[in-house]
Design goal:
alpha+beta; six-stranded antiparallel barrel; globular
Length: 199
């Protein structure tokens, strides 16, 4: 019962319209980042992987794992700093830029000017208040793709499921989704009351 409630929390979606950067990654790069877990005891948890390091490791092996996680953490933070300092270069290197439609703890829906095939692994990056340096990043997989029209132009609506995401950041996304839903309900009630007052 509690697991179902937890799962429903993750699926709560919030409307979100902001620019998103999507980098298509190959299987080799994905397998490189997969073995590492979010290093949650750090003040700013990095985007790493989902699998927990082998608990049977001890001594030098365990220390090497922690050093590697720390290096990945530093590398991720440096990338974010460079993106802030050189936004034009970061944009030029991006595979594609798009606009988000909605977001939840499990995924994001975006509109792009080009298709991305179902099953393709991607690294997404977008600005969102409340996240480290104002940037949310996660690895995902395209699960749906359909052509659509956006501002009179042919476009593609892409649904991306998060497959490597820091759990602290997932919780922030869930909190954001609930906040936006409550805000929308309050605005709808206020508009209804205003309309009733004018009638």
């Amino acid at each position: 019962m509690s697991e179902n409630r937890e799962e429903r929390r993750e699926y709560v979606r919030a409307t979100l319209s902001t620019q998103i950067r999507i980098k298509v990654i190959d299987e080799e790069e994905f397998q490189r980042v997969r073995p590492y877990q979010p290093f949650t005891e750090l003040p700013f948890p990095p985007l790493t992987g989902e699998n927990v390091a082998d608990e049977s490791q001890s001594g030098d092996d365990a220390q090497s794992t922690h050093i590697l996680q720390w290096l990945i953490h530093i590398d991720e933070k440096l990338n974010r700093i460079l993106q802030k300092l050189e936004p034009e270069q970061a944009t030029a290197e991006a595979t594609c830029l798009g606009e988000t439609r909605n977001i939840s703890g499990v995924g994001v829906k975006v509109v792009l000017d080009r298709p991305i095939p179902i099953g393709q692994k991607v690294l997404i990056s977008l600005s969102l208040p409340g996240f480290t340096m104002g940037t949310f990043q996660a690895y995902g997989e395209v699960v749906r793709a359909a052509s659509c029209e956006d501002k009179g132009e042919k476009a593609f609506e892409i649904s991306i499921k998060f497959i490597i995401i820091d759990e602290t950041e997932r919780e922030k996304l869930i909190a954001y989704s609930f906040y936006e839903q409550r805000k929308a309900i309050r605005e709808a009630v206020k508009n209804k009351e205003n309309h009733r007052g004018k009638g």
